[in-house]
Design goal:
The complex is a heterodimer of chains A (about 280) and B (about 280). With about 280 residues, chain A is an alpha/beta fold. Helices cover about 40% and strands about 25% of the residues of chain A. The chains are: A alpha/beta (about 280), B mainly alpha (about 280). Chain A: This is ABC transporter ATP-binding protein.
Chain lengths: ~280, ~280
């Protein structure tokens, strides 16, 4: 039975379509399969969560779509970004897409900013590389981007160096960089793991606003169920390199079909259950 | 957050840098201003004034042809500084290039480049310099090239090690994720982040270059007479050690002071930039 997927209605094709994806590593003992026949769709304007424990292959799946897998990884299957094949194109074609049509928001923003460059300069890099615009022309756009991700006083902040930003602001700057060219797809790889809960909530709201206002599709990788419940429209649950289940968020949380999903849900600490157990 | 707290100037942390910098600065200034500072021309012969000891007219005495030693030692500083600067620059530029490329591309590129560096490293420095000078011909320009080549492997190793650690940083990965090319990643992400230790190394190489240049000139492979160089002055002075010791002492002291100053500056910079030594 196919479940109703609102974002798939009326859309010509998915922003990202992954079919039977496999990622293998050559080990001395043979091939090590980290992603095993994963199929996954992200429709335009949809926020799709991929959830699973560490080692479940969720990050490998996401990196495959960017073609940024570690050295020695072999991709099988098909990946298409808005109908464009990503598996068989050359490296320079792929490079032209990265940061332009497909953007990555990394896990650790602090580590992802070059300490020797001003934040504004870095956030403007997509314009510089993909649109060949001059530093002067970029400046005002970068200020607008920083304003869009709700960084206070962007006119002065563009001149700051990364260490002058707080953790939340650094993550906002990374999001701004990802937004620069209005990509079809934003891949967020656990972007809130390094942040405290209040900042985390604001970042999640920001991502939702971005989807609503700019219409980018978002693929959100996380191991935190709470975030998925809060943010996503559709969820894929991964374990040992396979998708064990997918469906709308509400149904996954209320009536999980796979045993693993049920285990995952039960493993989450809950204040209600604790009270109940005592009674 | 953006308002930096101004810390009071930490004299203990910067004393080596300041002292070394003062010595180096004085020597550099003398070298640059040599024609105006030196009391006489370094080439003017005055047979009547041969081998005269220090006096009011010739502060550091005269040599076997009656030339003013002070003027010659100041002009020699010019030559030594030029050689040292250019040789360190040759080492820094090519060493950094080779080391960074080896680290970035890894694999076979790394293997070939670093093995070449090790071959170069395995020769004693002075022997390698003599061999290079013999094949290039003796001139001060070639001495500079030879010394620069000797420096390349040291810089290459340092650049490679530093670049390796920078390469593992997330921001290099992120640069790839926004579609930066190899060249851009090398220039914008890696180079600025490996520069500090390389510049410190350059200060140390500089003092070593002064020593090597003096050694080569002493052996007659560097500056050719009548051009003054600390090395060939020392060589001339050797013959008059008994009658005119100042001929050896003055260039010797100049070499000592320069090397001392640069080593102090290099050590000081390294300590000042080392976060673990910062707050003791």
């Amino acid at each position: 039975m196919r479940e109703y997927r609102p974002h798939a209605q009326g859309a010509a094709r998915p922003a990202l379509a992954i079919r039977e994806l496999t990622v293998d590593f050559q080990r001395r003992s043979g091939l090590l399969r980290t992603v095993d026949k994963v199929s996954l769709d992200v429709w335009p304007k949809e926020i799709v969560g991929v959830i699973g424990e560490s080692g479940s292959g969720k990050t490998m799946t996401a990196l495959s779509a960017m073609r940024l897998l570690p050295h020695g990884a072999k991709i099988g299957g098909a990946i298409a970004l808005g109908g464009r094949d990503l598996v068989n194109i050359g490296e320079s074609e792929m490079r032209a897409l990265r940061g332009d049509r497909i953007a990555l928001i990394p896990q650790d923003a602090m580590q992802s900013l070059n300490p020797t460059m001003r934040v504004g300069r870095q956030v403007g890099e997509p314009y510089e590389f993909h649109r060949k615009q001059s530093y002067g022309a970029i400046w005002s756009k970068v200020v607008e981007l920083l304003r869009a991700v709700k960084i206070a006083d962007p006119e002065t902040r563009v001149r700051d160096y990364p260490h002058q930003f707080s953790g939340g602001m650094q993550q906002r700057a990374m999001i701004a960089m990802g937004l620069a060219l209005d990509p079809e797809l934003i891949i967020a790889d656990e972007p809130t793991t390094a942040l405290d809960v209040t900042v985390q909530a604001r970042i999640l709201k920001l991502l939702r606003d971005i989807r609503d206002e700019r219409g980018s599709a978002i693929l959100f990788i996380t191991h935190e169920l709470g975030i998925v419940a809060e943010l996503c429209d559709w969820v894929y649950v991964m374990k040992d390199g396979k998708v064990v289940e997918d469906g709308p968020v509400k149904r996954i949380f209320e009536a999980p079909k796979a045993d693993y999903t049920r285990m995952l849900l039960e493993a989450t600490p809950s204040i209600h259950r604790r009270k109940g157990a005592k009674r | 957050m953006s308002t930096a707290i101004r810390k009071p100037f930490n004299w203990r942390r910067w004393r080596l840098v300041v002292t070394g910098g003062a010595i180096v600065g004085t020597i550099l200034l003398l070298a640059i201003l040599a024609p105006w500072v030196a009391p006489y021309s370094p080439f003017d012969l005055n047979v009547a004034q041969m081998l005269k000891g220090p006096s009011a007219t010739h502060l550091l005495g005269t040599d076997e042809l009656g030339r003013d030693v002070l003027s010659r030692v100041i002009h020699a500083a010019r030559l030594s500084m030029m050689v040292a600067v250019l040789a360190s620059l040759v080492g820094l530029v090519f060493g950094t290039l080779i080391g960074t490329l080896a680290a970035y591309f890894g694999g076979i590129v790394d293997l070939i480049l670093m093995r070449l560096m090790e071959i170069l490293f395995s020769f004693p420095a002075i022997l390698l310099a003599i061999v290079l000078m013999a094949s290039l011909g003796t001139s001060i320009f070639n001495a500079m090239i030879a010394i620069g080549i000797i420096f390349i492997p040291g810089f290459a190793r340092l650049a490679r090690a530093t670049a390796e650690s920078v390469l593992r940083q997330q921001y290099v990965e992120q640069a790839r994720a926004i579609g930066m090319s190899h060249t851009r990643i090398l220039v914008r992400e890696i180079l600025p982040n490996i520069l500090a230790p390389l510049l410190v190394e350059a200060a140390v190489a500089f003092s070593y270059a002064v020593l090597l240049e003096s050694a080569l000139s002493f052996l007659g492979l560097g500056a050719q007479p009548p051009d003054p160089s600390w090395g060939n002055m020392l060589n001339t002075g050797r013959g008059f050690m008994g009658v005119a010791p100042w001929l050896s002492i003055v260039p010797g002291a100049a070499i000592f002071l320069t090397v001392f100053g640069f080593n102090m500056l290099g050590d000081g910079l390294r300590d000042a930039f080392d976060p673990q030594l910062r707050d003791e």
